[in-house]
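Instructor's aside before we start: the two examples that follow are unrelated to each other. I chose them only because their records fit on one page, so don't look for a connection. First example below.
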Amino acid sequence: MNTTYYIESISCTLAEGLDEGDLIINLGVIYKDYLHYKHVKGVEMISEYSHHNRMMDSIDRIFEYFAWQPCGLNGDWCVQAYHYGFNSPNIWDGEYYVTDQEDGTFDVVRYYPNRDEDCVESIQQGFNSLEGAKAFTRSQVGTEYFTK
């Protein structure tokens, strides 16, 4: 696989005119494959372009944009929450979220909507910025994915 393959896959998916749910699902499939080749297998993706690193950064930014889904202030969350991943938020057990504690801090949690009690497990509390909490979440998800 090379970076051109992933850029073409993403471009085709974005051009299909899918609704938001199907778009996220399709990008999630490409993302898991991308992560597998980028990290798990340790295979260096070779590109015929001289700007290989810039292309990799662009792919990472595209996935990052679509991976964060605002989903708070509803029946599931009394605060603003941001779901990380390509599954639908507030449905699947064990997904990662960043919550705004409304006091200038952010927490990283895992949510288990199918439990009757203790639906939210705290992972790390007290981040001073949303970006800091998101960076921590990315590292947690990456670590978990790569050790499976």
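Example two begins here.
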Amino acid sequence: MKKLVFILLLVFIAMQSASFAALENKKVEIGIPYLEMSAISFLHQDANKQVTSFTGVNWSLGITHRMYFEPVKVNEINMSWEIGTWALIIPYIGAGGDYVWDNAWYAGIGLFYIFPYPRVGVFL
């Protein structure tokens, strides 16, 4: 438990020191280990260069595809659903919401089936 609190503290300190940037130029999403299912993912954007989803590898050595209900907006909660695999062969489905700061960091809560888990990462 102390490790988790320490990691969360470090993540929030890093979020405060990150440079401010718009999401239009972002191409990759990176999740923080133990705090996010996805490890590294490629962003999908609509015609207006707004992030709508991402697909990539997750920390359990599977695949994750997260689709936002609307294009991602900064300084707002963005609801999403996701599908993927765990350990490459076990399918999963989930949902959740992420708050995205204007420095491209996000934090939120997701559901892995019915089990909640934290989500923290950054768009690069």
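The radius of gyration is 14 Å.
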